[in-house]
């Protein structure tokens, strides 16, 4: 089933309160799977990067439901060697195609900027997410490290 969404667009500074509300509506498990910690709100550095509005610093997209409520966030930020992918979808909207839509758009935007590779790190219990990403972009490599499973994808 594909979710009915009103819009997908880049994050704006004015979205700050809606981003906070999105995180607050997500379950502890969803927040833990995204940030690898039991966060109650977006980590400060991540929040600042997302809200900066500069795709070269942190490219971030949001999805809204028809009522205008923000229900998903996906971003690509420069990491040590590759761009780091992060996706957060409100619990009741998961498995409806929002993450796929956002990742496809982020990948297209990254390619236009010349980004060649992205990395995604997931907890071992969420390794299926890497299989899902491999259907969108080719998997280059994966490793098990202290944080979980880290995979690099070619754009």
Model description:
With 155 residues, the chain is an alpha+beta fold. The protein has one domain (7-154): Gcn5-related N-acetyltransferase (GNAT) (Aminopeptidase, 3-Layer(aba) Sandwich). It has helices at 16-25, 28-35, 44-51, 98-112, 128-136; strands spanning 7-10, 59-64, 70-78, 83-89, 117-122, 139-144, 149-154. A seven-stranded mixed beta sheet has the order 1-2-3-4-5-7-6, with helices on both faces. The mean pLDDT is 92.
> Which percent bin holds the helix content?
25-40%
The span between the termini is 27 Å
CATH class: Alpha Beta
Class per helix and strand makeup: alpha+beta
Give the averaged pLDDT, no decimals.
Answer: 92
CATH architecture: 3-Layer(aba) Sandwich
Give the low-confidence spans: none
Number of strands: 7
Give the assembly state of these chains: single chain
Number of helices: 5
Sequence-ordered SSE layout with sheet pairings:
Layout: E1 7-10, H1 16-25, H2 28-35, H3 44-51, E2 59-64, E3 70-78, E4 83-89, H4 98-112, E5 117-122, H5 128-136, E6 139-144, E7 149-154
């Amino acid at each position: 089933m594909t979710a009915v969404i009103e819009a997908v667009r880049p994050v704006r500074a004015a979205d700050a309160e809606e981003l906070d509300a999105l995180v607050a509506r997500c379950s502890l498990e969803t927040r833990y799977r995204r940030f690898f910690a039991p966060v109650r709100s977006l980590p400060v550095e991540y929040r600042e990067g997302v809200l900066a509005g500069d795709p070269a610093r942190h490219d971030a997209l949001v999805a809204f439901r028809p009522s205008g409520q923000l229900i998903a966030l996906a971003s690509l930020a420069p990491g040590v060697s590759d761009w780091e992918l992060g996706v957060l979808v409100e619990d009741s909207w998961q498995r409806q195609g929002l993450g796929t839509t956002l990742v496809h758009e982020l990948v297209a935007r990254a390619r236009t900027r010349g980004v060649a590779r992205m990395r995604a790190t997931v907890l071992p219990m969420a390794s299926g997410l890497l299989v899902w990403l491999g259907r969108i972009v080719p998997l280059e490599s994966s490793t098990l490290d202290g944080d979980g499973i880290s995979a690099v994808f070619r754009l």
